[in-house]
Write a structure and sequence with these properties.
The protein has a single domain, classed as Aminopeptidase, CATH 3.40.630.30. Helix content is 25%, strand content 36%. The protein contains five helices and nine strands. Strands 1-2-3-4-5-9-6 form a seven-stranded mixed beta sheet, with helices on both faces. A two-stranded antiparallel ribbon has the order 7-8. The protein is globular and about 35 Å long. The two termini are 24 Å apart. The model has no long low-confidence stretch (mean pLDDT 97).
């Protein structure tokens, strides 16, 4: 298993990116300014895009694993890699996500705690309802982990 940075042609991974953020123009807001990493285990299984948000905060903007490889710890490994790689440059790793019964518990298992909420983020910024686990996402929930 290897984790490495993708520096060029990041959009070649658009199908994977769209699993975590299903509107391409939202991905366009961060893909060029972000640093992209992939986890390769006999082929790419998972990706993550992080951005510098200032004030010692590194943010996960997108993290996704191909569905057939989910539940095998790939995303958790990638988060651990990011946390270790950046712990000397940042004090906080944060992620914004929908208040979903699938994603919030995953991040909490990875050591994140709820920080704050941006009301109506998904309804205000996406051109269609975002549904996860049968629930329409409305608010953006931010979770943080100290590095």
């Amino acid at each position: 298993m290897k984790i490495y940075e993708i520096k060029e042609n990041k959009k070649q991974l658009l199908p994977l990116l769209l699993l975590a953020d299903e509107q391409e123009d939202m991905i366009d807001r961060y893909i060029d300014k972000g640093t992209m990493y992939v986890l390769d285990d006999n082929g790419i299984k998972c990706e993550c895009v992080v951005t510098d948000e200032g004030d010692g905060i590194l943010e996960i903007k997108n993290i996704a694993t191909y569905p057939e490889f989910q539940g095998r710890g790939y995303a958790k490994k990638l988060i651990e890699y990011i946390a270790e790689k950046y712990n000397d440059r940042y004090s906080v790793l944060q992620v914004g996500t929908g208040d979903s019964p699938m994603t919030v518990p995953f991040y909490e298992k990875c050591g994140f705690v709820r920080s704050h909420v941006i009301p109506d983020f998904f309804t205000d910024n996406y051109d269609h309802p975002i549904i996860e686990c049968g629930v329409q996402l409305v608010d953006m929930v931010y979770l943080r982990k100290k590095l």
